[in-house]
Amino acid sequence: MQAEMKMDLNDQLRQAVRPTTWVESPRLSKRLDVDVTIASESLQHTGSFKYRAAYNVVSRMEQDRIVTASSGNFGQAIARACAELGKQAIIVMPHTSAQVKVDAVREYGATVDLTDVRVKGRQERVAELLEEYPTAYVGSAYDDPWVIEGNSTLGDEIIERGGFDIVVAPVGGGGLTSGLVLASQRAGSSLEVFGAEPLMANDAARSLRAGEIIKNEVEPMTIADGARTPSLGQHNWAILKDGISGIVEVPEDKIREALRMMFVYANLKVEPTSALGVGAVMVQPELFRDKKVCCVVSGGNVDPDVFCEILSGS
Amino acid sequence: MQAEMKMDLNDQLRQAVRPTTWVESPRLSKRLDVDVTIASESLQHTGSFKYRAAYNVVSRMEQDRIVTASSGNFGQAIARACAELGKQAIIVMPHTSAQVKVDAVREYGATVDLTDVRVKGRQERVAELLEEYPTAYVGSAYDDPWVIEGNSTLGDEIIERGGFDIVVAPVGGGGLTSGLVLASQRAGSSLEVFGAEPLMANDAARSLRAGEIIKNEVEPMTIADGARTPSLGQHNWAILKDGISGIVEVPEDKIREALRMMFVYANLKVEPTSALGVGAVMVQPELFRDKKVCCVVSGGNVDPDVFCEILSGS
Prior knowledge:
- The first copy, chain A, has helices spanning 2-16, 26-32, 50-60, 73-85, 99-107, 122-132, 145-161, 175-186, 203-210, 234-243, 252-266, 276-283, 285-288, 304-311, and strands spanning 21-24, 35-40, 65-69, 88-94, 111-115, 137-139, 166-170, 192-198, 246-250, 292-297.
- The model of chain A has no long low-confidence stretch (mean pLDDT 94).
- Chain A contains 14 helices and ten strands.
């Protein structure tokens, strides 16, 4: 009975998310000198893979309200998942958030709680809201088994497509990569999972070397803003410490170059964090040469000004 | 036997092309106040719908060599189709063509014939090449029944998806819209086909009003460079004159605004010509309101500089 219920929820999740968009670009592969196929989540609902996690969390939680701090993709994803599933979302965002991001969360029907982070931390504000709504679920963008399970559906799709030796995906809090490792282990697949992390925010790579979670001491201001997380999550680390095959550290200029290459040779609009996978192939091609590689583009939400600044090569 | 052979070729064509990419964006539909779904050919092989036509032409022609004048998407599409099918392509391009476009055609394995168009017209150069290769096929990007038939496969996909009242697509030489009308008529579908044309290159709209083909007197320098064609083709006109439901004339500022909206709300990189469909919905919303509308994005090949100039709103 429990197995049946689980199956139903997984089926529901697979139907609720948009299948990933496969992009093969011979011109991109030629330039990388590596056989690369892109799995792009830029056209996923709300524009990023986070919708997989968000939908899973909101459908599995018994509560009818979720409170989470997010200035980015997870907030939008939770907002839309709650709208789809008839639940309430309160998204705590810094008062300095770009208006377009605030508007996006509101358009999906969530309540935006703007917090002056000079006065009060975002987690502090989440705690306050919990006093007001003691039965609400507290959402984490990565450190949550349901988040990992939701993201594992992308791994399922990659394994079902078949033929890949390696998948390489961005690492921030580790929600996506741990989901991919979970999918590979669950399927008994030989698919290897590599992480791609900004060199200037390399806490995950350092954690892997140290054998324990290492935190960034200050928020690293990498252009890949989805990877500015303080550290890997506990649940993610439990899966990644033995499950991930390696982490490639990508300098900022390679992140930018990878974004440009995907624009020119694969006709993709990707957010900077999403350029990490192709950036990793550029940085350590010997890891990927003669393999069939899937690069995950985690999302496409990026401000036009930031995008063009990167595209111009300045 | 002939019917069987035709079936085989159609099946081969459908397998050779990449299915169109469907993008539903509630945020875009909300802003347009029209229920719009995008069928994007930006991820088609060679980055535009032209590959459908090119593959069909190259597979159906008995000749093993094709000569065509194209500085854009058709040249790349013919080059790759010839590479796939083991035939030779000579693409006549103006000597002023951007190096990236020349490189793209060469990368797909075609011979590029750079012609100084101040001295010799491109069609004149094609005629010269025909003297050298008298058995070569002369390719037209739109005025060719095989081109129309190839493009009709996009119409087939739109009809197979179902539920649409209207499809709106860019009009240049009329190759795409005539293909869509052909598909709708062949299927006995009630799907209406509208064209979207730059106001400053409105020869097709004027032709429809006049009841005969009207040519642009000079090359109209619209940002939608795929619609800078001198006039509709004869084969296209034969289908469009009674088959198209109407043509919406889109001012340049709306083309630009539509491109920006698709970037922000649908995470798409589209070329300016491809913004015409959404632009048409903005210009004459009353035509589309309360209908289920498919907007065709014809391709995604655009220089970063041009793209960012449009994105910046300047």
